[in-house]
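Narrative progress, year one. The postdoctoral researcher (J.K.) led the effort to move from monomer predictions toward full complexes, under supervision of the PI. The following entry was the first complex the group processed end to end, covering 284 residues in total.
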Amino acid sequence: MPEFLDLHGRTNKAVRAIADARLRRHGLHLGQDHLLALLWEQDGRTPGELAAALDVTTPTIVKGATRMAAAGLLTRRRDQQDNRLVRLWLTDAGRALRKPVEEDRRRLEAELTAGLGDGEREQLLRLLAKVHQAAAELLAGG
Amino acid sequence: MPEFLDLHGRTNKAVRAIADARLRRHGLHLGQDHLLALLWEQDGRTPGELAAALDVTTPTIVKGATRMAAAGLLTRRRDQQDNRLVRLWLTDAGRALRKPVEEDRRRLEAELTAGLGDGEREQLLRLLAKVHQAAAELLAGG
DNA sequence: CGCCGAACGTTAGCCGGTGAATGATTAGCC
DNA sequence: GGCTAATCATTCACCGGCTAACGTTCGGCG
């Protein structure tokens, strides 16, 4: 069991578990916050656009949007100019989650990296970015 | 979108995608390799033991074991002494995957960290371990 | 103008993961 | 010895993610 893969995977799982627990207090599930983040920035985007921005497939967005619509966080509306398109619009409830959820995420980041000095934090990001680039290249070509 | 959380999440997703693609060549799905790794080390363990070792819930093991049994990688047998227990035993097919899968994983680790010097690799592990510990503490207490 | 292909959202089915409820079996205590 | 409580595995329903198949709607070309 290679060291980096194991450690990276474990860390990711723990982080996801914490994020999930905190999102649950706002009635959200893991991943839905990313979708919301995009809509907070700009309303009325299409599932395809959102999927591309999140590096996720369209069905993932559609299913999530259906659940979030049922939860009253957003509404679906067809585009009048191009009837193939569907646009997602936030409700007041969806908009209201912005501040607390963004704050939660900032706090989580701060708590996780609290044990690192400024130089260490910077270095961690630098090294992780290297690995990420290697992964992206392997995924594309290798 | 905090820097570390975002970068770490992206990296994990890319790594998982690569691992999934490579496991698929052996007829495995993501996560099944971890279960196999435990059984390669020691056969005849119970779902509960495996779940605890992998830090996963028991239903996850049960479902995976069902699929892997259907794929001919392992067999289920009830313990004769304690009839509540179920023990998972590898088939020859399951054992045969050991070398290629372990080799794949070692190679993936090497490829991902190829761009790092020895000092950098060590430092990355050290810093990531710090974050992991912080996450574990948050998960337990905070 | 009509057809045919491209673009798009949706659905269905699978996978790993979770929590909650079920059922069987053992262990412990009176 | 018998009843109760703890311990297992299993099942069900849900979530995010994926691929593949489907149906609609628009665009371009003859």
